[in-house]
Prior knowledge:
This protein is an alpha+beta fold. 21% of the residues lie in helices and 44% in strands. The protein has one domain (2-255). Helix 1 crosses helix 3. The longest helix is centred in the last third of the chain and has 24 residues, at 232-255.
Amino acid sequence: xxxxxxLLAASILTAIASQSHATVYNVTGTLGGINTVGATSDPxxxxxxxxxxxxxxxxxxxxxxxxxxxxxxxxTGSIAGIFADLVxxxxxxxxxxxxxxxxxxxxxxxxxxxxxxYNADTRTxxxxxxxxxxxxDSGFPSSQTSDxxxxxxxxxxxxxxxxxxxxxxxxxxxxxxxxKPDLERFYMTLTFSPDFNTFSGxxxxxxxxxxxxGNSWYTWSFNGTAAVPVPATAWLLGSGLVGxxxxxxxxxxxxx
Length: 256
């Protein structure tokens, strides 16, 4: 019995010390920014949920859901699943004096690789290399990169978008982005709660289109909740067994 308790305590303490865990999370979030650089000049982008005609009214950002399978071990980890399943939305695009509307009927992006790092002290999980989102038309995206990517997941219902309006705008949107909908650059950070039942975070993604002149950039914010709550007893059992061990040692010392 004593050996069993000792081994159990040791295994639990090892898991706690390394912050190792594997959990499936249900995620909700919001698309919070879009910027197209290179494909249009002086882009004016207005995003609206649903399918709309060209509009410059206040953007209404679409929400999304996801299912993420996250594991951590030591200073690394892994992530898989659907990053985002977005409701229908439209983007109004203006290039100089001509306009167009890009309608996205159903976007589904899944995780598609990239380096992972994990900081157990801050409970921070990072996928890819740091990138920064900006609304300026400065050409900055071309100098940013990351080894993480998102796949446009037709197997899970993704439907390619379409453009209507000015051919000047639509031709570039169609050839550079709509026909190549994967996000070839992606960076994400999230921070877990102490019990690992929830997390919050942000992400930046880029559709670099043909890889030379096209850059459409996106930013997201999100929150996750464990599909099956992580049992609190798993985190308390280790300290409880250690406490029992300390009491037993003290009792032996007093008896001696």
